Each structure stands twice: as C-alpha cells, then as structure tokens.
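To whoever is on call:

I kicked off a structure prediction for a single chain this morning and the downstream step that reads the tokens threw a length-mismatch warning. I double-checked the sequence; it's 328 residues and nothing unusual in it as far as I can see. Pasting both halves so you can look.
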Amino acid sequence: MSINVRYSIIIPMFNEEAVIQETYRRIKKVMAMTEEVYELIFVNDGSTDNCAQMIEEYSYWDESVKLIDLSRNFGHQIAITAGMDYALGDAVVIIDADLQDPPELILDMIAEWKKGYEVVYAKRVKRNGESLFKKWTASLFYRILRYSTDISIPVDTGDFRLIDRRVCEELKRLPEKNRFVRGLVSWVGFRQKAIEYERDERLAGETKYPLKRMIKLSLDGITSFSYKPLKLAGYLGALLSASGFLYLMYVLYLVIFTESVVKGWASMIGITLTFNGFVLIMLGILGEYVGRIYDETKGRPLYIVQEFYEGKEQQKNIREHPVTHLRK
C-alpha cells in the first residue's frame, strides 16, 4: 500500500468477536464512499476471544487492514494511543468497535475537516440502550470534570472524533501514563467543532466499561487536568479544624462558667469518627496524585506490541513502541 494515506481509522477492540465482522463491513462501506486511500487500524487490547484472529484473516486479502496486537490488556485509552502512533493518514478517526457510534458520521466529520477544522468530535444528544444509572453517572462525571478542570473539555463527548495529522503529532509528544485522550485533545487546542448525534445501543456483546473502569477513567480525567481536589481537601480540612476549635471553646465555657457536667461521649465518638473519615478521604485524594506521579517516574513504555500485521504483506514484526523515547 502506498504510504500516501488520506484517512486512518483507529478501532480499539477488546473481546468484540460478536460484532467485529459487522463493524468491519460498515466502516468499509463508509470509507469506500470517500474514494480516497484509507487504512483501518484495529488495535487488539488483550482480547481473549477470536476477534484478533478474524482481523488477521481480513488482512490476508484486504491491504487496507492493519492489526496492532498488544501483548496484554493495557486499557482503552492506551489502545487508542497505540493506534495514533501507527497511523499514517492526513486525518485520523477514532471509533469504538461496538457500533454504538455510527460509522456513517465519519463522512460528516471529513466534510468539516475539509472546511478547515483540525478536530471534529461527536457530541451525544441521546444515549440509547443504556441504564438510567449509567446515563446519570456519565452526565455527572462530565459536569464535575468541566467544573474541576482549567481547560474546556466538551460535555457528553467520548473518544469518537476526527483529528488532523498535526493534532495527532502533537498528541504523540505528550508523555502521560494515565491517559485521558479526549482531555488531551482539548488541551492541545486547534480549531474544533462538534457534531451532534444519537448514540445507538450495542449491537452485541457486553460493555467494556463497567463501574470500576468508569471510576478509573473519571479519576484519570480529573487528576490529569486539575488540582482542585487538592485545594478542596485543604478547604475542608480548614473548615473542620475551625469547627473543632469552636466546639472546644464551647466545652471550656461549660466547664469554667457553668456547673453543667459535660455529657455525650457517644456524640464525641461520632464526631471523632467523622473527622477521621474526612482525614482519610483527604489522604486518599493525595494518594491518587502521588500514585500518578509514581507511574510517571517509572519510565516504562505505554504499551508493548506483540505482533503487527500490515495488509497483504503480513509482516509480523515483534517490536516495542515505535516512539518509546518520547514516553520517558
């Protein structure tokens, strides 16, 4: 394949065997309408099903298909980063393999990109097939993130977006280990535009973002772009200390100026436990930041590629991250 690639479509996947064939078919149909050179970069993030083998077979006869087979599960955001590192296109599109984000929207993104926008992101106006709890927590997360950070991260947006080659190159220079890609895209700036759409329910399979992973992603987003939680912990500490001092003055007043016996040991224990709980919360917030500092100092590569399949050549290159020196 010529290296003069116009579009790179990055598709991270983790156990998507049930849907990957339809994903491939629909994206191929959309990209054929562009009548330009493109590549489909599937990133296998440690899947235990046969989705990687299916993509490998596609690459036997479809030279547009590439497979980055990671050595283990490194996480969704790292899989996206791996795809960007290997992408050759003038425009790079990120889309999940579960078909909740319609591939047909890529054509609208390309149209806006050709007008001069360097980032075109999809904004959800409706989320079909998701529980009320998932919708509520997602909405809450985006609002907290917008309040907490010093940069403007659009609400109700995921990683489904198109970025220009220049934006992609700037993102490859950013060394964070605990990555929040949509926040990094906002941080680098450039001309950005939203396209609204209704998100579909999963075609098949189960969500790859249970509550535990959503919490991890939320913490990565907040701690990567804001230190307001640390300031909030300080404010709460000062408020609790002042409250405790005032209560102590009240107790001394009762002892010195009245004959009332100080009672209520149960309430004192309750107050003590409450104060200790706040202290532990503050320590937990500090621990989140310290843990991320520790991750950054270890200097490990973001991921390891086990095998790389490139079109009909079927070149199996067992190699490390191609820009590891930028990640240290």
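Update from on-call: the warning came from a stale cache, not from the record. Cleared it. Sanity check on the structure: The beta strands are 7-13, 38-44, 65-70, 91-94, 119-127, 157-164, 192-199, 304-310, 319-320.
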